[in-house]
Design brief:
Blueprint: E1 3-7, E2 25-29, E3 35-40, H1 42-45, H2 51-61, E4 66-69, H3 74-83, E5 86-89, H4 95-103, E6 108-109
Parallel strand pairs: 1-4, 4-5
Antiparallel strand pairs: 1-2, 2-3, 5-6
Helix pairs in contact: 2-3
Length: about 130
């Protein structure tokens, strides 16, 4: 099983990132906590919109089974479900701490979005009329 954690940096000691679509990196681990791959989230970070979908596509392309994050918007959630990924929320502290929490069964699976569209953009969010 390949487990991705949304992260601010490229090491397990870096802080986990709450935002799925706008995280800087995904760190991919196996169940033995071995770091397999570091994925820079470039396509999503430069996207004006659809960052969550682009992030999920990156995870699918790299054969990720589970993603650990904080917030997931409606479009990203649809992509996660279509791609057959499992998503768990409740990342905290470092990437390593979040991974350990998941492996101990302490994180909650997410079945529906827990964030509004464009919420990861901060002041750049647009109101659609």
């Amino acid at each position: 099983m390949r487990i991705a954690v949304s992260s601010t940096g490229y090491e397990a000691a870096e802080p986990a990132e709450e935002r799925l679509g706008r995280c800087n990196y995904f760190l991919v681990f196996d169940e033995a906590e071995n770091l397999l791959e570091v994925l820079k989230n470039d396509a999503a970070l430069s996207a004006a919109e659809g960052a969550g979908i682009k992030s999920v596509q990156t995870l699918i392309n790299h054969k990720v089974d589970v993603v650990l994050t904080g917030r997931v918007g409606p479009k990203a959630m649809s992509a996660i479900q279509a791609g057959g990924l499992a998503v768990y929320t409740g990342v905290f502290g470092t990437v390593a701490q979040s991974l350990k929490s998941y492996l101990k069964g302490e994180m909650q699976p997410l079945a529906s979005p827990n964030s509004a569209s464009h919420s990861g953009m901060g002041s750049q969010a647009r109101v659609r009329r």
